[in-house]
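Possible regression after last week's pipeline update?

I re-ran a chain I had predicted before the update to compare outputs. Posting the input and the new output here so someone can diff against the archived version. Not blocking, just want to make sure nothing changed silently.
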Amino acid sequence: MNGEFTTWLADWRRGDLTARDRLVDAVYPELRAIAQRQLRNERGGHTLQATALVNEAYLRLSGLDRIQWRDRVHFVHLAARVMREVLVDHARRRSAQKRDGGERVSLTALELAGEDAGGVDVAALDAALDALHRLDPDKAKLVELRYFGGLTIEETAEALGSSPATVKRHWQVARVWLFEALSEPG
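New output (post-update):
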């Protein structure tokens, strides 16, 4: 199905709306599951629903004309990343509307290290991922695939062209780095 999916991506890029519809039908359940995972990590009281998050991501993806889609994994990874951006934008808007700001998600520094604790500011998480990307783009992509994309170790290894053992090691390093970055004051 990946070959067919890649064909749909290419056809969509050329303006074929039937291919776009097939692609959306094929990937929608997976994108909705990713959205639900991301929203589960939001602090209670958030206002976005999974369907709205997927739809907003789809609208943003539709506006990306210069993307050369490689395959399903590339599409899903980018969709997960766009969903993260939607959540960050949403949190920033809500934060700007509140006097003391501070929209928080349950993805925590300690959770990244394998423990459980309270939430971190979604903008801080976004900044930490951006910093990790500048330092080590491969580990940042791994975090996006594993956490935001919901991929397994094996799926991540396939997407990155790496071994599962390497992905496990790099996942541990990335989690520790994020733990330290999110634990720093200010």
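Follow-up from reviewer: compared with the archived run. Residues 106-186 form a domain with the Arc Repressor Mutant, subunit A fold (CATH 1.10.10). Marking as no regression found.
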